[in-house]
Design brief:
The structure is a single chain. Helix 1 (30-40) runs parallel beside helix 3. Strands 5-4-3-6-1-7-10-9 form an eight-stranded mixed β-sheet, with helices on both faces. By secondary structure, the protein is α/β, with parallel strands linked by helices. It has a single domain, classed as Dihydrofolate Reductase, subunit A (3-Layer(aba) Sandwich). Helix content is 26%, strand content 27%. This is Dihydrofolate reductase family protein.
Length: 186
C-alpha cells in the first residue's frame, strides 16, 4: 500500500504564500531544488488544489532545452506523473495525464493508495487539511524558508490538529531547512 505525503515550502511563520499570494521568498536554489526532486521522485500520482495546479501547469509546455538541469528534471517528472485536480471552477483540464474532480473523496484516495506501493503527493494547504481530517495523510514534508511574511495562505488551515513524529531533517547552505514528519494516526 502506498502513502499520501504533503510537501510544501513554508515561511518560518507558517505561510505557503504571503500577502497578495506572493511567494518569491520560497523560490528554491539549485541545492534545495535537487533535494525536493529526489524526495518526490518516487511519487506516481499528484493530487492538487486549483492554485497549485495553475502554478505548476506551465511545466507541461515549457521547452525543455531552455531550462537549467534541475528545472528540466522537474519538468520531465511532472509530465510523467498522473495528476488529479480538485476544483469546481474548471470544467476541464488542459495538461497531460490530468483528471479533474469536484471535491476530494477520501474513499477514492484510499483506493489510489491501495493500488500502488509508491507514494502519492498532495499539494495545497486546504486540500492537505481536508485529507488529514479524513485520516488519509501519512507524511508531511516542509522546506522552511528563511523568511517571515506576516500573513497569507497557511501551510495548513488554522483549525487542524495533527500529532507528528519527526523522522528527517536537512539543512541547506542557503538557510532553508527540510523537516520530514510522520502523521501519528490515533
Amino acid at each position: 500500500m502506498g502513502s499520501l505525503i504533503y510537501f510544501n515550502t513554508s515561511s518560518l511563520d507558517g505561510y505557503i504564500a504571503g500577502p497578495f499570494g506572493r511567494w518569491e521568498w520560497a523560490t528554491p536554489d539549485p541545492e534545495v531544488h535537487a533535494f525536493v526532486d529526489e524526495l518526490l521522485a518516487p511519487v506516481t500520482t499528484h493530487l492538487y488544489s486549483l492554485k497549485v495546479y495553475e502554478a505548476l501547469k506551465v511545466w507541461d509546455d515549457v521547452p525543455l532545452e531552455d531550462l537549467p538541469t534541475p528545472d528540466r528534471e522537474f519538468a520531465v517528472r511532472w509530465r510523467e506523473v498522473d495528476k488529479i485536480v480538485y476544483t469546481r471552477k474548471l470544467t476541464s483540464v488542459s495538461t497531460s495525464r490530468t483528471e479533474r474532480r469536484d471535491t476530494f473523496d477520501g474513499d477514492e484516495a484510499q483506493r489510489l493508495k491501495d493500488a500502488t506501493a509508491a507514494p502519492l503527493a498532495i499539494g495545497g494547504g486546504q486540500l492537505a487539511s481536508i485529507a488529514a481530517r479524513a485520516g488519509m495523510l501519512d507524511e508531511v514534508h516542509v522546506v522552511v524558508a528563511p523568511a517571515v511574511v506576516g500573513g497569507g495562505i497557511r501551510l495548513f488551515d488554522n483549525t487542524l490538529r495533527l500529532d507528528l513524529e519527526l523522522f528527517d531533517e536537512h539543512r541547506f547552505s542557503s538557510g532553508f531547512v527540510h523537516l520530514g514528519y510522520r502523521v501519528r494516526h490515533a
